[in-house]
Every structure is written in C-alpha cells, then in structure tokens.
C-alpha cells in the first residue's frame, strides 16, 4: 500500500523547517523520509527527460539489492527438483496466448458414395489454443440429409501416413518408464519417460498446413479448403506473410 501519503515532506534535522523539492532528487542517492532511509536506484523516462530539462545531470542507475528471502526460497525450490527423469508437458503458454482464437475455413468434400455426387459444404475450425480441429457440415434446407451436430468432433487431426492410420490406443501422450505398486488407485507410483524412448510419433495437421486451395485428408476423406474468414486471413498475413 501507500507508505507515505501525498503531502510536503520536511527535510531531516537540522533543516526540518524546509521541505523536499525536485532539486533534492537524483539517481543513486539516498533520501531520508521521516527517519527512514531510501535509496533511489532508477526512474522512468518521463522523469529523466524532466530532470534533464531542469539542468540536472543524472547519475547512472544502480542495481537492485538481493532479497534474502528470495535467495533462501530459491535454494529450497532447487533442492525440491526431482533427480529422476520426468515428462515435461507445458501447454499453458499457448493456451494463454491464443485462448478464444479460432481459424475458420470454408471447405468442400465431394462424396464419391453419394447418389448424385453433389459436393458437401463444410466449415473447419482450427483452435490455436491446443491445435485441435472440428468440422461442421452445412446441411441445406430440404436436402433430404440428416442434420448431425458435428462432421468431426474436436481433436487433433492426424496426417495420413503411407502405412495407414494407427489404431486407437497405439499412440499415447505419455510413455511410462516404470511402475511401482500393485495397481492404479492403490497408491501405485510410476515414472514417465521424458525422452519417449520407443514411442510411436505421428504428425498432426498444424496451422501451417492449412491454406486456401489445400487438400487435407480427414480420416480418408479428401476435403478442399476453399475460403476463410477475415480473422484467419489477417492471422496468416501477420504470422506467415501470406
């Protein structure tokens, strides 16, 4: 909170009949306010410009002294770091920077199994917070098709590998190195492998793979990206210069 409220502060004895003015302040000096000694280590740019216009020669700024509590606290945190390998999964930064930012593409899928081979209009949403994709189908009125909530539920969309798609459960986000205990829920412990030794790696569609005119493989269905909204266009202009 406020240590000293706004008012005229008298100088320390034996000049207590006088008050502090702008001439008493500079960088790297000490001031005494009501028997408390404060050291000025730096000031903002506006104050520097003001003092220079007043003809004051500013001293170079000094470094902030170390806080004993912060140093001791850091020693405690360093001693608590585990020595065994563990998996580092940090997605908080991406979530905080892009929470609520969604790229929207307007797509077309030519269904080869359709009776009249009419194109299916789709809307693809790419969520920048976690790199997931969902697709909704635009069903025209009186088209005879059933309106489903989602054409593709929100998840990471894998790229179609030459050997085919992996079965569910083949790829996991965590690799267990060792397990201690009887079972999960009976206070069992496990160690995760941060290097993912022997793990199966699979590529997923990223924002760099999506552009107007591109063809993506949605679980065996070739979907053409035809257009996007203004936010998506501005995003690609700013990040990729497209």
UniProtKB/TrEMBL annotation:
One of its GO terms (biological process) is regulation of neuron projection development. Coiled coil: none annotated. It comes from Pelecanus crispus. The keyword Cytoplasm applies. It comes from the Eukaryota. The lineage of its organism: Eukaryota, Metazoa, Chordata, Craniata, Vertebrata. PROSITE patterns: DM10 (PS51336). GO terms for cellular component: axoneme; microtubule. Keywords: Cell projection, Cytoplasm, Cytoskeleton, Repeat. It holds the Pfam family DM10_dom. This is EF-hand domain-containing family member C2. Residues 1-55, 99-240 form the DM10 domain. PANTHER family: EF-HAND DOMAIN C-TERMINAL CONTAINING PROTEIN (PTHR12086), EF-HAND DOMAIN-CONTAINING FAMILY MEMBER C2 (PTHR12086:SF11).
């Amino acid at each position: 909170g406020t240590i000293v409220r706004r008012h005229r502060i008298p100088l320390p004895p034996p000049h207590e009949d006088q008050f502090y003015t702008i001439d008493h302040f500079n960088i790297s000096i000490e001031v005494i306010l009501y028997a408390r000694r404060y050291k000025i280590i730096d000031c903002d740019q506006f104050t520097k410009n003001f003092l220079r216009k007043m003809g004051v020669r500013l001293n170079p700024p000094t470094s902030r002294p170390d806080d004993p509590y912060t140093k001791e606290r850091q020693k405690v945190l360093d001693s608590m770091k585990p020595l065994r390998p563990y998996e580092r999964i940090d997605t908080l930064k991406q979530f905080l920077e892009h929470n609520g930012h969604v790229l929207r593409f307007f797509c077309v899928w030519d269904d080869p199994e359709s009776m009249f081979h009419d194109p299916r209009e789709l809307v693809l949403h790419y969520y920048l917070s976690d790199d997931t994709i969902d697709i909704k189908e635009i069903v025209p009125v009186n088209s005879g098709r059933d309106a489903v909530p989602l054409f593709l539920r929100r998840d990471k969309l894998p790229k179609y590998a030459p050997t085919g798609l992996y079965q569910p459960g083949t790829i996991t986000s965590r690799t267990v190195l060792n397990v201690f205990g009887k079972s999960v829920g009976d206070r069992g412990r496990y160690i995760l492998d941060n290097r993912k030794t022997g793990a199966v790696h699979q590529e997923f569609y990223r924002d760099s793979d999506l552009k107007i005119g591109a063809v993506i493989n949605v679980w065996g269905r070739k979907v053409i990206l035809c257009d996007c909204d203004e936010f998506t266009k501005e995003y690609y202009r700013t990040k990729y210069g497209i």
